[in-house]
Amino acid sequence: MCPIHSGGVTEVTPDLQFWLFCAYSKSNPYGYVPSEAVAITMIALFGLSSAIHTGQAVYRRLWWLLPTAVLCGVLEILGWVSRLWSHSEPLNMTPFQIQICATIIAPTPLLAATFMIFGEIIRRLGSVYSRLSPKTYTILFLTCDLVSLVVQGVGGGLAATADPLTNGRSPDTGGNIMLGGIGFQLVVIVVFSICALEFVIRYLRNRPLHVAERNNEKYPITGRGELTGKLKIMLLGLLFSTVVLFIRAVYRTIELSDGWSGRIITTEVYFNVLDGAMVILAIYTLNLVHPGWFCYTLSKKEEESSVISLVEIPPAEA
Questions:
Q1: Which parts of the chain are beta strand (E)?
Q2: I need a labelling partner for 262 at 20 to 30 A (CA). Which of 53, 219, 245, 318 fits?
């Protein structure tokens, strides 16, 4: 709804009066009227990415991408459809509550996909360079990701159902729990990044942490894997995806710390750019640099050169 100009003078129409009332009303939980154009654009982009991810997962038989990357896209679609609904009914609490819950937890499954992919990279390049085995590495970070998801979901649910007038509960309680969940996720991303960086540095310098043994169940990869061109691209894709998800987590942490009526949460452009756009970049990165082509499926030549003789690996550090 926009002002209607007539002869250079803005005509105050009933639609404009309603829009202004909703935008500045204390009953508006957003503090603004969500943009219709932005919501439609985000719905289209997330819908396209989700459809492509579904096709890619089925074609490459990587079924774990359905409850990770695809689930992220579906939750984002739900959140942005709710924001589109709020454009027409900005004072309606139902779509506001839905989008709060959906957009806060949506990127968490996508982060889980990052952990899964990096675990496979460790397996291919050599778990002797990692402090944890690929399996332990994946389980640990997936568990932390799940804890973050549950905490954010509980907080979002409490915040969405809180109403001081009807049930006497303040949304601040749910907001604080959500803040704890997103803060924990931020810590997980930082720890994951440190572990991943150490692994890559040790691999490049050929400085293993463990002694490789052919019959060692904990570290089954006995040789140094080759860093192929595809794996290099996959690592760069994961780096970019992790960075943008980190930026998004920092924004949401600051946003929730500022409170429900703070300047950050009531400024739409911050949400559109630092949340929506960041997740768009992350989810499309895995469309373009898909693990089915760059990590999980190697050519025959790459498979043959994926394990190098133990002689090339120096003794493990004490």
A1: 4-6, 9-11
A2: 245
